[in-house]
């Protein structure tokens, strides 16, 4: 976006932000049948952040995801993922993340630690993020962007269903990579 203006002073970035779902991807990757990866995303979510550029650990981020919005580009698989075998959407309609700490780890890097709740099970996870920049969009909104990923074991969250393969191994990996491409708009 050539009309965007880069912010040179990060202290101007302190404030309250809302995640822009139209320009954010909350995704995941899991191995399937031991031979390939299946990628998916959640399409219905909301989140807010209060960022303190001077004291990063005072920053707070909250994200709520609608489990029914899971999308792997295959409706049959998505329905199975919504079932009690995986997300148990009827009993646990939301997945949430609430930050508990943040720390800068490099010039453009930070680690965000927080409580991830899936199927009613809450575990602390740490997500390394890359600060992608700040800009004023053509509508006058201050935007900031982050990208990050972390790996979790789905069994830690009570997602234990699997099927053995004749050739050995299992149908779905225990390890799931969570991927985040986040665009946030500063509240006026």
UniProtKB/TrEMBL annotation:
Source domain of life is Bacteria
Q: Which segments constitute the Lipid/polyisoprenoid-binding YceI-like domain?
A: 16-185
Q: Which InterPro entries match?
A: Lipid/polyisoprenoid-bd_YceI, TTHA0802/YceI-like_sf
Instruction: State which residue ranges cross the membrane.
Output: none
- Family the UniProt entry places it in: Belongs to the UPF0312 family.
Name of this protein: Polyisoprenoid-binding protein
**Could you tell me which species this protein originates from?**
Natronosporangium hydrolyticum
């Amino acid at each position: 976006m050539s009309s965007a203006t880069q912010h040179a002073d990060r202290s101007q970035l302190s404030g309250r932000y809302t995640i822009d779902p139209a320009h954010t991807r909350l995704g995941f990757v899991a191995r399937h049948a031991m031979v390939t990866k299946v990628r998916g995303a959640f399409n219905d979510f909301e989140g807010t952040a209060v960022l303190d550029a001077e004291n990063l650990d005072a920053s707070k981020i909250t994200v709520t995801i609608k489990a029914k919005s899971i999308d792997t580009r295959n409706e049959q698989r998505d329905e199975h993922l919504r079932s009690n075998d995986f997300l148990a959407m009827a009993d646990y309609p939301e997945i949430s993340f609430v930050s508990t700490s943040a720390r800068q780890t490099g010039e453009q890097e930070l680690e965000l630690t927080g409580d991830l709740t899936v199927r009613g099970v809450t575990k602390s996870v740490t997500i390394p993020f890359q600060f992608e920049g700040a800009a004023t969009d053509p509508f006058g909104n201050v935007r900031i962007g982050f990208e990050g990923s972390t790996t979790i074991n789905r069994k830690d969250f009570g997602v234990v269903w699997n099927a053995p393969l004749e050739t050995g191994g299992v149908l779905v990996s225990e390890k799931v990579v969570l991927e985040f491409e986040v665009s946030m708009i500063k509240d006026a």
